[in-house]
Amino acid sequence: MKVTRTTLKHIRRSPYQSLAAVLIMVLTFLAITVFAFIVFGSSQVLNFFESKPQVTAFFKDTATEQNIDDLKNQLNQTGMISSMKYVSKDQALQIYKAQNKNDPLLLDLVTADILPASLEISTVKIEDLSTVSNIINKSPYVSQVVYQKDIVSRLTQWTNAIRIIGIILIILLTVVSVFIMMTVIGFKVSQRRDEIEIMKLLSATNWYIRLPFMLEGVFYGAIGTLLGWIIASGALLYFSPDLETFLHGIPIFPISPVFFVGLLFGELVLAVLLGVFASSLAVLRYLK
Amino acid sequence: MIRFENVTKQYPTGNTALEDITFSIDRGEFVFLVGPSGSGKTTLFRLLIRDAVPSSGSIFIGDWDLVNLPQKKIHVLRKNIGMVFQDLKLLRDRTIYENIMFPLEVGNIDSQEARDRVEEIIERVGIADHRDKFPVQLSGGELQRAAIARALAFSPEIILADEPTGNLDNATSWEIIKLLQDINASGTTILMATHNADIVNSLRNRTLILEKGKLTKDQASKHKKEHEHKD
User: Fold this and answer.
1) pLDDT tens digits for B72-94?
2) Is-above-0.80 flag for pTM?
3) What CA–CA distances, in Å, run from B110 to B105, B106, B114, B117?
4) Do B107 and A195 touch (CB under 8 A)?
């Protein structure tokens, strides 16, 4: 209790330095939270595409049911197919309607006639995809073949790039925030150099001197985390309807509250560690 | 109570502050440490509170071997020694009451016990009226009393007073000496560094004289001499 009072007194006595320390922690943890959302979102997008059929063959309007059945039989005979699903023009319209239910204008413009029927195919082994693709491409009734593999590999590349950039950014911000916090707390320690000397001469242990400064670091870290998390989470919730429209069909929203709480908890642990680390380093010089 | 055995203190600069000092002080004595500036008085005090270690020799306070005292035990030693610093070292942003409370706070003494203790000391040294004032609002004598009060916080067995009358007028100096004598009368051992020849000559307590880091004279107290003479 006494330690907490001393910590709060330290913070009150130099409010601008305390504000600077809190702001840098807000910035760091805002970046970490935003990055966590991006990683989470991109993983969900990736999972979505990975769970989709590996090849989708779109049929020309001239293709009859017989033509489609022939192609299905031909593919089944290869023994390479793990699953195959026929999506008729009407079913395609239902899917389209479900995906664009919030946009009546788009719904009015589209009828079943303009949507192609398709065959969604997955192979047992990934290496069989080229054989299956060759058979599909040779069919005169197929207008277009879409390979999920290409989409997934491009998405994986993007996700990895985002992760690397994010990690570098966070490391940089973390290092900067540790240095700023060290400087702020170091300055405060230096202002109290005489007091610390007197404390030591009057039988204070190093822990007694160190603890309020460490708590100060923890305080900056915790407040910074909380604010950073609130800003990022608030922004995500605010923009989630727009994001939902943008990512139509990809089931990211609603995000589980467990994810938000888990993220906050993890960030708080990190913030406490950073605060303790930075303040310990700052005080160390003066206790030697 | 205090024992110095062939103590030499040489600073890294090569300056020898103390050279081959040997003396001992018994429990309950009131001893003056006299010598010109730079004679090593403050260094001797620093050695006694383990703010410095000797280059050679041994120092004992009671059962404490100060040379071999582990770092983590220093704070325990300092609770047993009340130190009145030459520059007082009162915290400017705390009231007199808070300054006296400070060592008890640092020593994690129970709040009620600490409050009772401070009340008792503040009355004893005669600065109860100034409890809520800041050091800057007090006179030299009052500040000295506050510094002595703080030194008494843990009821130490020894008080080290470094020039407690240094910046005071004659009358106030005697008031401080009277206070220290009262404290000594209750059994506390006192080692006081001073330049004030008037006080030393009047009281004729045991006097250690330091010159250029050497103990040139260990003059027994007048009372002890008279006692020995009668025997």
Assistant:
1) 888 889 888 999 998 889 988 88
2) no
3) 8, 11, 6, 10
4) no
**Cβ neighbours of B106 in A, within 8 Å:** 199, 202-204, 208
Flag if B75 and A203 touch (Cβ within 8 Å). Answer: yes
A201, A205, A208: residue with CB nearest B89: A201
CB contact under 8 A, A201 and B83: yes
For A204, the closest of B72, B106, B150 (CB atoms) is: B106
Which H or E run includes A159?
A: helix A148-191
Q: Which of A171, A168, A231, A181 is nearest to A25 (CA)?
A: A181
What is the end-to-end Cα distance of chain B in Å, rounded? 25
Q: A201 and B107: CB-CB below 8 Å?
A: no
Write the pLDDT tens digit of every residue in A185-212: 888 888 888 888 888 888 888 888 889 8
Q: How far apart are CA B35 and CA B22, in angstroms?
A: 16
Instruction: Write down the residue that tokens 């490391």 correspond to.
Output: A171
State the sign of the Cα–Cα–Cα–Cα dihedral B123, B127, B128, B134: negative
The percent of chain A in helix, strand and coil, each rounded to the nearest 5, is: 75, 10, 15
> Beta-strand (E) ranges in B114-187?
158-162
